[in-house]
């Protein structure tokens, strides 16, 4: 964009791509063998506006799948379907099959409470409860009745904070408010809070967008560690982040899933021209 | 102007307009200060007026008399017989004491005037004395007895100068007797305990505020117990559970309208429903509390909804994302965070209810009630109604009592608000 001579042809390419938009068939390898979560022909509507078109995708066990795409492409909406957080939006309708192993999570009789205990979520903005650090982490185990004794609860709090690599920073002030921590610490506290419930899948909705680079690096390191135990789906705006933390990358465009491939492949040799246009910064 | 501005830089133009901007800023600030000063001045005038008129009600003129507990005159032969103690003519021994103090008074009419120096309720204090100490029977003791309200008004308005005194219904003879008592230090202004310990009375010197205070307290308790939980429950349902549709829109419009309905209409409603249909008793704090609950509910619902709306959605997401049920989300996170705001609204509603008079008139809490209510089902009146009643009474001595009652009401309000602020401070969490 800086170079004037480059400007025109680039613009043309971008418009051309948008015009002959995407046919609808996802390229690459959206499916995998040992899927933890599998989505088939998912459509999401807000009233009459369709936000997600016919998306099918698998998230493998202990895999980190990054979802990238321009703003408004539906990646967050899609992520929020995976633990039915979209239920809180009245006008939102979801069709298609979403399965957690063999469990049909949109089955009319499926209760969201146990589902969300199995599929945890970390949000864009750090949102610790205005309670103590200890109570923040202990909240999930308490409401789900995971422990009976204070000793066990202490254990869970400590191990969760350790796994979120926050323990050393807060062990002396467990009972001071969680909202008094720095942004990066708050986000790690939210991760600790999520893993305290021992979910199987963790959904992360742009977890670093409100953080500085150092805090971001810490969270990314953490994601790599967590993937040994958990299955992770992460939505991110930063392509570098997707490249650093994920095993597979899914590229969304205008509510459609364009390409899913190994992360290395997506960033070095994308199969679809829309993906290529996006990762080379021609739009987005 | 145009030419010169072309020659000037942007920063020069900015500098040129600065002065005017600062002037405007100062004026703007001055408007605010003026508004606050006006409000404060009104408050000061109100308080000075009330306190200057009302402070004297906390003192009561008393007459010193040598009273003989004459067993014949009292017709008591056995001090342990409570029937005799109750029936005895204490007023009679006061009259005797007065005749003794002013021996030269003769004639029936003059004696009647003489007897009216002392309150006709003064005998009760003698009965109390005798019940407390039976050995007084047959002895002569000096006691301070409550003076009649005319004497009280005279003494208070007199100060040090007999010329200023308000004589009202007093005859010249009475004035002479009072002056004679004052010369001998047999008249004094003492603390008016009656005002704080008795119920209403037609005689100003026997009238007290306790009945009205208890009535207001019981009414307010009923109001708080009913309207706060119902209001919060309604607000939680409307904000967290109810779908957005025509029915909920209709409900919302109605709640907002109810908040503006004149309070006397609620009184009529209470009269028709609680007293007319449910046949509850008139004049009782229970009905008063029910009516005031109806009146306060819209305020509480509206402010609670605003407080619940102000809880950031990220906290709800966090709770739901962890697998909390909706009820857990509401009870553990939304309500604690919304509580300070809800309390603020509720306290405004309760303060309003405490000062409300009109609906209570409709349900009979304006009756003349001497007994101090002991519960929500005893006939009672309320502080603002008591103020209304006294301000309507012809006796001069009720003027100061009206102001004193207003002071009590204000003190009630201030202590309630202080409690609310303290509660809010305790519940408020820092982000």
Automatic annotation (TrEMBL), chain B:
UniProt key word DNA damage: no
- Give the chief site where it resides: membrane
Q: Which residues form the ABC transmembrane type-1 domain?
A: 213-420
Q: How does it sit in the membrane?
A: Multi-pass membrane protein
Organism's domain of life? Bacteria
Task: Identify the InterPro entries for this entry.
Answer: DUF3333, MetI-like, MetI-like_sf, Phosphate_PstA
Residues passing through the membrane, by range: 28-47, 209-238, 258-278, 284-308, 329-351, 404-423
Q: Where in the cell is it found?
A: Cell inner membrane; Cell membrane
Q: Which UniProt keywords apply?
A: Cell membrane, Membrane, Transmembrane, Transmembrane helix, Transport
Q: Which PANTHER family match?
A: PHOSPHATE TRANSPORT SYSTEM PERMEASE PROTEIN PSTA (PTHR43470:SF5), PHOSPHATE TRANSPORT SYSTEM PERMEASE PROTEIN PSTA-RELATED (PTHR43470)
What family is reported?
Belongs to the binding-protein-dependent transport system permease family. CysTW subfamily.
This protein is called: Phosphate transport system permease protein PstA
Give the organism the record lists: Fluctibacter corallii
At the highest ranks, the source species' classification is: Bacteria, Pseudomonadati, Pseudomonadota, Gammaproteobacteria, Alteromonadales
């Amino acid at each position: 964009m800086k170079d004037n001579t480059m400007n025109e042809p680039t613009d043309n390419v971008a418009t051309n791509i948008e015009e002959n938009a995407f046919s609808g068939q996802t390229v690459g390898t959206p499916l995998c063998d040992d899927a933890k979560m599998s989505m088939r022909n998912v459509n999401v509507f807000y009233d009459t506006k369709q936000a997600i078109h016919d998306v099918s995708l698998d998230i493998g066990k202990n895999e980190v799948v990054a979802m990238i795409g321009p703003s408004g492409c539906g990646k967050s909406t899609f992520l929020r379907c995976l633990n039915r957080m979209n239920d809180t939006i009245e006008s939102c309708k979801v069709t298609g099959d979403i399965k957690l192993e063999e469990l049909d999570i949109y089955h009319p009789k499926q209760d969201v409470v146990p589902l969300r205990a199995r599929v945890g979520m970390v949000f864009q903005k750090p949102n610790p409860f205005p309670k103590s650090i200890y109570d923040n982490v202990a909240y999930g185990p308490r409401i789900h009745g995971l422990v009976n004794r204070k000793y066990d609860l202490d254990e869970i709090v400590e191990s969760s904070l350790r796994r979120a690599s926050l323990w050393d920073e807060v062990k002396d002030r467990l009972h001071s408010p969680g909202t008094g921590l720095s942004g990066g610490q708050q986000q790690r506290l939210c991760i600790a809070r999520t893993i305290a419930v021992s979910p199987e899948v963790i959904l992360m909705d742009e977890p670093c967008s409100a953080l500085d680079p150092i805090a971001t690096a810490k969270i990314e390191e953490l994601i790599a560690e967590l993937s040994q135990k958990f299955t992770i789906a992460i939505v991110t705006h930063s392509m570098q982040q997707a490249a650093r933390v994920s095993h597979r990358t899914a590229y969304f465009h205008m509510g459609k899933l364009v390409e899913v491939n190994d992360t290395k492949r997506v960033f070095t040799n994308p199969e679809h021209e829309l993906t290529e246009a996006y990762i080379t910064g021609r739009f987005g | 102007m145009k030419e010169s501005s072309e020659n000037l830089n942007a920063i020069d133009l900015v500098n040129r307009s600065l002065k005017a901007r600062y002037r405007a800023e100062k004026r703007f600030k001055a408007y605010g200060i003026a508004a606050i000063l006006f409000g404060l001045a009104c408050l000061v005038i109100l308080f000075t007026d009330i306190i200057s008129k009302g402070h004297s009600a906390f003192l009561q003129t008393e007459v010193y008399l040598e009273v003989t507990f004459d067993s014949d005159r009292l017709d008591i032969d056995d001090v342990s017989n409570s029937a005799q103690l109750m029936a005895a003519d204490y007023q009679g021994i006061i009259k005797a004491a007065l005749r003794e103090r002013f021996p030269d008074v003769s004639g029936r009419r003059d004696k009647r005037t003489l007897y009216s120096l002392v309150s006709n309720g003064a005998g009760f204090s003698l009965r109390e004395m005798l019940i407390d100490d039976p050995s007084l029977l047959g002895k002569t003791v000096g006691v301070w007895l409550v003076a009649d309200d005319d004497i009280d008004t005279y003494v208070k308005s007199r100060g040090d100068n007999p010329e200023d005194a308000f004589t009202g219904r007093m005859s010249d003879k009475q004035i002479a007797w009072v002056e004679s008592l004052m010369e001998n230090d047999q008249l004094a202004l003492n603390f008016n305990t009656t005002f704080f310990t008795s119920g209403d009375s037609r005689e100003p010197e026997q009238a007290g505020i306790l009945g009205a205070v208890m009535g207001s307290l019981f009414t307010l308790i009923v109001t708080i117990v009913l309207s706060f939980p119902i209001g919060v429950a309604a607000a939680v349902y409307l904000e967290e559970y109810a779908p957005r549709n025509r029915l909920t829109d209709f409900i919302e419009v109605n709640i907002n309208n109810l908040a503006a309905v004149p309070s006397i209409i609620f009184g009529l409603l209470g009269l028709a429903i609680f007293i007319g249909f449910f046949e509850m008793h008139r004049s009782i704090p229970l009905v008063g509390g029910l009516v005031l609950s109806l009146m306060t509910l819209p305020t509480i619902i509206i402010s609670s909804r605003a407080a619940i709306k102000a809880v950031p959605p990220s906290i709800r997401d966090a709770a739901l994302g962890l697998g909390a049920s909706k009820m857990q989300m509401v009870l553990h996170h939304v309500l604690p965070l919304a509580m300070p705001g809800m309390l603020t609204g509720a306290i405004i509603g309760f303060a309003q209810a405490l000062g409300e008079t009109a609906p209570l008139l409709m349900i009979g809490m304006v009756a003349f009630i001497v007994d101090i209510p002991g519960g929500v089902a005893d006939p009672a009146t309320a502080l603002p109604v008591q103020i209304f009643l006294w301000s309507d009474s012809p006796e001069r001595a009720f003027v100061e009592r009206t102001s004193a009652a207003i002071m009590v009401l204000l003190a009630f309000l201030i202590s309630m608000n202080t409690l609310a602020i303290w509660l809010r401070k305790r519940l408020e969490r820092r982000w």
